[in-house]
Amino acid sequence: FYRIVLRPLTFYQWNRFYLLMYSLIAFIIPLVDVSSWIGGQAMQQNQLIKLVPVLNDFTPSPLINASTQPIVAGLSKNWTAMKALPLVFLAGFFIMVIRLMRQYASLWRIRRRAVLLTKEEDIKIFQTTATGNPFSFGNSIYINRNSHTEEELQRMVQHEMVHVKQKHTVDVLIGECLCIVNWFNPFAWLMRQAIR
User: Fold this and answer.
1) Torsion of CA 98, 99, 101, 102, to 10 degrees
2) Running along the chain, 196 residues long, what does each successive block of 10 average in pLDDT?
3) What interhelical angle do 12-28 and 168-181 show, nearest 10?
4) Distance in angstroms (rounded) separating the CA atoms of residues 186 and 184
5) Separation CA 98–CA 189 (nearest Å)
6) DSSP state, residue 182
7) Distance (Å, whole) CA 122 – CA 135
8) How many CB atoms lie under 10 A from the CB of residue 134?
C-alpha cells in the first residue's frame, strides 16, 4: 500500500505517520483474539490453525544420562528445528544489536573529530572530514565543505534542518529497532528503508 499509493505522494507527514503506525500495529495485531469471530468448531477443524505451534503444548524433554549415552548422540536425538529457532532468533538479534552499536561508535568517532561551525537555535552544524553527503543525527548536522559547492551545501543543510526539527532521528531509530526484532523478515527491512 505504501509503495503503490503513498510513496509517490508528497504528503511526507502522512507517510511518516502511516509508516510508524503501521509498524506499531503489526506488533499489536497478533495479540488480537479472533476466536469469537471464528466459530469454535470451525477453528478446531481449520488445517492452517492446526499447523501453528502453541507454546503450552511444548513439554521439556527429559535429561539424558551422560554416562550411558555419548553427548553428540543425545543432542542429535533431542535437537529439533523448533528448539533451534529461538537460538537462531537470538543470534540474529544480538548480531543486529552489535551492528547498531558499531554504527553508533562510528558516529561517535565522526562527532569526536568534527569541528563545531555554528549553533542556530538548538541545532549544531559540524564540519567533518567524512566523505559523503551531509547527514543529521539528533540535533546535529554533519557536513564536509570540501565535498560540495556552497550552493549545494546550503540546500542540503536546509534539508537536514527539516530532519532535525521534525525529529527524524526518532524515526530512524524506530526503523533500526524494527529490524533488530524482525531481522528475519524482509518486510521489516523494506519498512526501515521507507522510514529512512
Assistant:
1) 120
2) 76 82 87 73 66 57 51 56 86 96 94 89 88 88 86 88 90 92 92 87
3) 30
4) 6
5) 17
6) T
7) 16
8) 22
